[in-house]
UniProtKB/TrEMBL annotation:
A Gene Ontology cellular-component term: cytoplasm
Subunit structure: Homodimer.
Domain of life assignment: Eukaryota
Keywords: Cytoplasm, Glycosyltransferase, Purine salvage, Transferase
SUPFAM superfamilies referenced in this protein's UniProt entry, alphabetically: PRTase-like
Cell location: Cytoplasm
Every Phosphoribosyltransferase domain range: 59-152
Protein name (Swiss-Prot/TrEMBL): Adenine phosphoribosyltransferase
Length: 185
């Protein structure tokens, strides 16, 4: 994937502003904080345009965009509003009303349960799933399973940041795209 000059500048601006917090939330984890970057309104605007351009160009025919709790929601609603398609949340357990599908998953620093409302995706609908960061891939793997349980088709997983050395993409059976990669964490 190649970006035009303006999107490349947006990408570099975002990358330069990502916060780094060693030993959070546990010793040995170098936490990448996208919210640090979003303190700057110019970075918010740049990120919005970068992500929208990418999804509109590469996934023009999706029916919905699925965001992961919690930082994936920052991006899923933006995309859905711009493309006039559905916005579907996958949330940590106990937060969603109605009938839900559930999957337990492993994280870089623990385990959790993800849920999606069973009727939020219609069988045959095409989606992309978006989140802020890919580490072990546990979250996105569980999300892919949940959407398949509902009968949806996952066209791709999209993340803003990817921790390449963990190689979480090996756990994902759909195409994965990341805007920014870190080689050595
Ligand atoms: O690739 P993985 O190893 O699954 O890790 C990535 C996930 O970890 C972080 O979320 P976290 O679970 O900390 O939840 P939060 O967004 O509620 O802070 C991050 O926002 C991703 O969702
Ligand atoms: N290193 C990290 N930084 C931010 N979010 C994460 N989720 C899992 N690992 C993470």
């Amino acid at each position: 994937m190649s970006f035009d000059q303006i999107d490349l500048e947006r990408l570099n601006l975002l990358k330069s502003k990502i916060g780094e917090y060693p030993d959070f939330p546990k010793k040995g984890i170098n936490f990448k904080d996208i919210f640090t970057a979003f303190r700057d309104g110019k970075v918010c605007a740049a990120t919005k345009n970068l992500v929208l351009n990418y999804v509109k160009k590469n996934h023009p025919n999706i029916d919905a965009v699925v965001g992961l709790d919690a930082r994936g929601f920052l991006f899923s609603f933006l995309i859905a509003a711009e493309m006039e398609i559905g916005c579907v949340p996958i949330r940590k357990k106990g937060k969603l009303p109605g009938k839900t599908e559930k999957v337990e998953y492993n994280l870089e620093y623990g385990t959790d349960i993800f849920e999606v409302q069973s009727d939020s995706i219609k069988p045959g609908q095409k989606v992309v799933i978006i989140d802020d960061l890919l580490a072990t891939g546990g979250s996105l793997k569980a999300a892919n399973e949940l959407i398949k349980k509902c009968g949806g088709i996952v066209e791709a997983n999209i993340v803003i940041l990817e921790l390449r050395s963990i190689n979480g993409r090996k756990n994902l059976d759909v195409p994965v795209f990341s805007f920014i990669q870190y080689a050595d964490e």
